[in-house]
Amino acid sequence: MFELLAWVEQSALADTLRGAGVWTYGLLNLAHILGIGSLFGAVLILDLRLLGAWRSIPIATIARPTVPLAAAGFLLAVSSGILMISFNATEYLGNPFLYIKLPVIVFGLANVAVIQRLPAWRHALAGVDAETAERRVLAVAGAISLLTWLTVITCGRMIGYW
Ligand code: HEM
């Protein structure tokens, strides 16, 4: 692990970032926060709908703006996060919150891949009225998603306090 973090910290990209001025880290942190806000804001609305809130609004209608917004927020959070970590990567060695956060992000992505393959999700996007069993499946998927991203955010916030 140390070798990997040391390699990241000594990379040409990290050197360039560190030499780019005192505002660089702060601006990357700002991008990280904007990415997190877009990701979690969108996920919160979609997942609460999957859990049964606002039943009069079709899932397809809610998914149309929230899914691309969550994807864009995720890409911004991941790219800014990688750049932030490269600033002083070895400082994060042994940080349990980072070690929990990164695999949970991978789990969150796997969960998205699973949801997209669920017949219940496909039916919902096609506007088919869900039966009770499908509603339950979607509610479980929404709950897992919410817990996953809340865990990532909590770990992200705690990294600096270790
Ligand atoms: C590969 C992906 C990611 C990497 C490498 C990464 C890395 C980082 C780093 C280095 C920090 C600063 C820690 C510190 O020194 O205080 C941070 C903060 C944070 N990250 Fe990430 N991150 C990633 C993705 C995400 C995602 C997807 C989320 C949320 C869904 C997230 C949530 C947070 C939060 C809430 C903070 C605290 C921000 C603050 O208080 O200023 N991160 N992340």
**What's the SSE pattern?**
HHHHHHH
Specify the oligomeric state: single chain
Question: How many H/I helical runs?
Answer: 7
User: What is the alpha-carbon Rg in Å?
Assistant: 18 Å
Helical content (DSSP H or I, runs of 4+)? over 70%
Strand content: under 5%
Bound molecules: protoporphyrin IX containing FE
Shape: elongated
Total DSSP E strands? 0
Structural class of the helix and strand makeup? Answer: mainly alpha
Give me the secondary-structure topology.
Blueprint: H1 2-9, H2 12-18, H3 24-50, H4 59-87, H5 96-117, H6 119-125, H7 132-159
Helix pairs in contact: 3-4, 3-7, 5-7
This protein binds protoporphyrin IX containing FE (HEM).
Summary keywords:
elongated, mainly alpha, binds protoporphyrin IX containing FE
Quick recap:
By secondary structure, the protein is an all-alpha fold. The chain is built from 7 helices and no strands. The longest helix is centred in the middle third of the chain and has 29 residues, at 59-87.
